[in-house]
From TrEMBL:
Segments passing through the bilayer: none
Positions of region (Disordered): 146-218
Top-level division of the source organism's lineage: Eukaryota
Residue stretches in coiled coil: none
Amino acid composition bias (Basic residues), ranges on this chain: 203-212
Name of the protein in question: Zinc-binding protein
């Protein structure tokens, strides 16, 4: 399937919708207090609309774009009428279920995360593949190459046994690396070290002084 066929697999309004900039002032109704552009006509497919613009699109399918943390979202009950949003993670915002229009940068997955977006690698619940509508378009295209993830139990190169601790060292443990769920853990050996050899100076016992004996004649003491 080529690029043209990829485009035909989506509604003609979807990609232009994802490229639009919402929540800006309408150029046609700048004097109105309802000039913020947060609507989009799926039939005309030309530009974001404000509330005043809706008068010219009464019989057209129009959806409303909302915002969460400076990112555009759309309610599930609105978009699912016109688009298959399966495998896209949904969120609850202001008591309504929504999906994000485009990906949101994330420096690194959270601790303990086991599933991420196939396109931008944002943290996801296990039952989803994409974090947004934009990522689903990219991730389901024919020329998309999924990033290879490192296996959880990837084998590592065999390490040589740790060297025997020298007698002069006081450290009686060593550390090695092992792979456990893709992480490197420090393993400590509790095997006692070889006791240090007795020093030469202690091998020959010092000669003790003999017990003094009184000479049989005279008052001198003789040491043996």
């Amino acid at each position: 399937m080529g690029p043209d066929e990829d485009d035909n697999s989506w509604p003609p309004w979807l990609k232009p919708l994802l490229k639009e900039q919402f929540f800006v002032q309408c150029k046609l109704h700048a004097d109105s207090h309802k000039s913020e552009c947060n609507m989009y006509c799926l039939q005309c497919n030309n530009a974001p609309l404000c509330s005043v613009c809706l008068a010219h699109h009464r019989d057209h399918p129009v959806i409303q774009i909302r915002r969460s943390s400076y990112h555009d979202v759309i309610r599930v009950n609105e978009i699912q009428k016109y688009l298959d949003i399966s495998s896209v993670q949904t969120y609850i915002i202001n008591s309504a279920k929504v999906v994000f229009l485009n990906e949101r940068p994330q420096p690194r997955p959270g601790k303990g995360v086991t599933n991420t977006c196939e396109v931008c690698e944002r943290s996801l619940l296990d039952s989803f593949k994409f974090c947004s509508l934009g990522c689903k378009i990219v991730g389901t295209s024919s020329n998309f190459v999924k990033k290879k993830k490192k296996p959880k139990n990837s084998p590592e190169k065999k390490r040589l046994p740790a060297p025997v601790v020298a007698a002069s060292e006081s450290d009686d443990s060593y550390s090695s690396s092992s792979s456990s769920h893709g992480r490197r853990n420090k393993i400590q050996s509790f095997t006692p070290s070889t006791p240090p050899p007795t020093s030469a100076k202690y091998k020959t016992a010092k000669r003790r002084k003999g017990i003094p004996h009184r000479a049989p004649t005279g008052g001198l003491f003789i040491e043996y």
